[in-house]
Amino acid sequence: MTPILQRIGSQFCLEGKFESYEIIKNGNINMTYKVTYRKSDGALKSYIFQKINTHVFENPVAIMRNIDLVTTHIRNKCVDSPTLHFHHTKNRDNYFYDTDGSFWRVMNYIDSVTFNNCSDLTVVRNTGIAFGRFQMQLADFDGARLSETIPDFHNTKMRMDTLFADAVKDPVNRVREARAELAYIASVREKACELSEKFYHGEFPVRVTHNDTKCNNILFDRETKEPLMVIDLDTVMPGMSMYDFGDAARFIASTAEEDEKDLKKVSFDKEVFRALAEGYIGELKGHVMDTEITTLPLATFSITVELASRFLDDYITGDSYFKIDYPDHNLVRTRCQLHLAKSIMAQFGELCETIERLR
């Protein structure tokens, strides 16, 4: 691996001489390496080299263009703070195609820690701060400048339309196993689609959205646990800011994993929601429309139902999108997310009151 990494590093304007590397095992899509160089004064400096999975990310150049626009905008605003920085090649590209067609990028290594779960409310609040700050830093950036690298990714109405069209076709004879789930989704279809319908009719501004707002996509200070920056910008696209918060709340405030079979273990923790919202709104209020704050509970419900619809559509059509570990895995995921959505709706008034107090 050393010769390959040396060859990749030679294409970027890195200071020093190749010293060593180690594999970073976080993440399961791209291949990631921490590569260390020794500078002329003897000091060591580390970088992150990533080989992008172009089977998953079919248009990596558009992704890197989005990333370059977003990170440059943030870096110009935060001159005294550490920011995500991707290095450029001699040709001024922030990526490099190797001779075998593999796609590489290089960024600065930031000494930090990440968390795969947010059981500590301080970390939850700091997660809200990180994603709120990300939105705040980009509030004056026209999200329409970004490429939509995954078209209609959070077009909830389109997701629902696709689900019910596929249910009519029933291509692998599975609809009979999912009639209760289809009935519930149909009953909340209008409410779940409300925000995306308004967005696509121009009632909300086009923002920069991260689209993978989990706490392990934030770098935290090792000692203070303060958030340093948001990372993993491969899914940065134009969209609704509320859905970024909603997806974070859906994931972090759930009391169970996304594929928990025992639905008694699945509920929505309103205290976790409050901590997340406290951090998020504290950074963002005054920088976005009031309705982008007041609709956060509805966004949380909507995106939970949307994900359930995607799981169910994949189940009905033969499990071609999401990786499964057993035959009805996607149906289990569907039921878990719908149970979570019902828990959100049961507490909806309280969640709205929480947002109103914080606002």
Largest sheet, order of strands side by side? 1-2-3-5-4
Global mean pLDDT = 95
Structural class: alpha+beta
CATH class of the largest domain: Alpha Beta
The major β-sheet equals: 5 strands, antiparallel
CATH topology of the largest domain: Aminoglycoside 3'-phosphotransferase, Chain: A, domain 2
CATH architecture label name of the largest domain? Alpha-Beta Complex
Terminal CA distance: 52 Å
The low-pLDDT segments are none
Shape: globular
The percent of residues in helical segments reads: 40-55%
Q: How many beta strands in the DSSP annotation?
A: 9
Order of helices and strands: HEEEHEEHHHEEEEHHHHHH
What is the total number of structural domains?
A: 2
Based on CA atoms alone, the radius of gyration comes out at 21 Å
Q: How much β-strand is present in the residues?
A: 5-15%
Count of alpha/pi helices: 11
Describe the protein in words.
There is one protein chain. The chain is of the alpha+beta class and 359 residues long. The protein folds into two domains: 2-108, Phosphorylase Kinase, domain 1 (2-Layer Sandwich); 121-358, Alpha-Beta Complex (Aminoglycoside 3'-phosphotransferase, Chain: A, domain 2). 45% of the residues lie in helices and 13% in strands. The protein is built from eleven helices and nine strands. It has helices spanning 2-11, 60-77, 121-137, 156-169, 179-200, 241-252, 270-284, 291-294, 296-317, 329-346, 348-358; strands at residues 17-24, 31-38, 44-52, 96-97, 103-108, 207-209, 218-220, 227-230, 237-239. A five-stranded antiparallel β-sheet has the order 1-2-3-5-4, covered by helices on one side. The chain has a two-stranded antiparallel ribbon with strand order 6-9. α4 runs parallel beside α9 (296-317) and α9 runs antiparallel to α10 (329-346). The model has no long low-confidence stretch (mean pLDDT 95).
